[in-house]
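Input sequence (214 aa), recorded before submission:
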Amino acid sequence: MTAAAITGTPTEDLRWTSSALLVALAVRDFKAGHAFTADMAREWVPALAQGRRLKHAIETLTDNGFVTSRVFVDRETARNITEYTLTTVGGEAVKAAKSGQARASGPKGPHSKDRTVPAGSFAMRLWSLMRARRILDSDTAASTLVDAGDDVATAMKNAQRYFANWAKTGAIQESAQRMTGNRKRYVLIHDTPEPPAWTPKARARAQATSSNPA
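Predicted structure, token format:
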């Protein structure tokens, strides 16, 4: 995919959304530490505004550690805006995209199996919010973590899924007090830097890390 294709007329079938965004960043000479927003990405790559393409692109970059994110409030519009900052690995991915070798996956190698939860991933942001609030529900979490206009309903479902699985580990506990509409609330029980490991692979990795400290 060339820079001309990304910055020109939007295509009807943009399959590699994360690669498209990486190329758009490369065209603008982005490097590690540079930041962008969802609105900027939509302006650069109009095709990303279709459906959930931008959401998928951001999730891919985040899950692979290419970007981290922070939420701030625009003083003029009072909107919650998420800003995405390129990591060192993300800067390398953008550099590769500039040379025509856009990366759509994370770093490979023997270290990849020991990778922790990416700092900007939805899971990590949700867990950080839980640690800060101590008690949280999926509705509040979704409205806090996603941009205005994004798919809040999907974010709510994802948050509830994480809460339910984290509760199985004992890290959080379902509150007896429900929210309006019988929505569940969860209370933090064990405060840890990273989200609780609940999948078999994550539990195995966590056990290996604890038994072999650096």
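Checked by second reader. DSSP finds nine helices and six strands in the chain.
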